[in-house]
Amino acid sequence: MEMQIIHIASLLITGISVNFASGLLGVGGCNFLQLTLLERTSVPMAQAGVRVAHKLPARELKYIFIAVMFYISPKMTGVFS
After folding, report:
1. The pTM is what?
2. How many domains does the chain fold into?
């Protein structure tokens, strides 16, 4: 928790001139609207993911994770862009 506070504080202090988060709710490197939306949905979605993972058989869950990794890894490396 302390590291998150330090990270956000450093973004706010050093990233004041950064334009990628500019706008009405953007200060430095943080867009507070996106931060609020992300924090409001992350805990319920994590709980929903745990419920679904416990209901699925291990074999199916493993194949779903493999499919997600094969989709996300090229996307992160820029293959789709």
Report:
1. 0.51
2. 1
Given a contact cutoff of 8 angstroms between Cβ atoms, the answer to whether 59 and 52 are in contact is: no
Q: Which residues pair with 31 in a beta bridge?
A: 26
Amino acid identity for residue 37 in this structure = L
How many alpha carbons lie under 13 Å from residue 56 in its C-beta half-sphere?
A: 14
The residue range of the domain holding 69 is 2-77
φ, ψ dihedrals at 26, nearest 5°: -100, 130
* Dihedral (Cα; 39, 67, 79, 42), 10-degree rounding: 0
E strand or H helix at 30: strand 30-31
Indicate the DSSP class of residue 26. E
pLDDT, tens digit, 9 for 90 and up, residues 27-46: 556 677 888 888 899 999 99
Q: Report the alpha-carbon distance of residue 47 to residue 73 in Å, rounded.
A: 24
Residue 20 is given by DSSP the state T
